[in-house]
Amino acid sequence: MSVYGLILTAVTTGGSILTVYLKTVSLNFIVALTSQLLIVGPISRELLTKYIKP
């Protein structure tokens, strides 16, 4: 699905696949890192601490 979206975006905007790929990867990195640090990390750390340490 990601490859399909990449090709579709490159075709509809008229940009090169490499440019669209780099833009997509950079945006994904920004969103994924922020969600990992602010949301997913603390929740999983809390759950693991609750269930691993008696």
Number of helices: 2
Strand proportion: under 5%
Helix-residue proportion: over 70%
| Helix and strand pattern | HH
How widely separated are the two ends? 42 Å
Oligomer kind: single chain
Gyration radius, to the nearest Å? Answer: 18 Å
Question: Unreliable stretches, pLDDT < 50, 5 or more residues?
Answer: none
Q: How many E-type strands?
A: 0
Mean pLDDT: 89
Largest sheet: none
Q: Which class best fits the helix and strand makeup? A: mainly alpha
Question: What global shape is seen?
Answer: rod-shaped
What does this protein structure show overall?
It is rod-shaped, with a radius of gyration of 18 Å. It has helices spanning 2-13, 17-52. α1 packs antiparallel against α2. It has two helices and no strands. The longest helix has 36 residues, at 17-52. With 54 residues, the chain is mainly α.
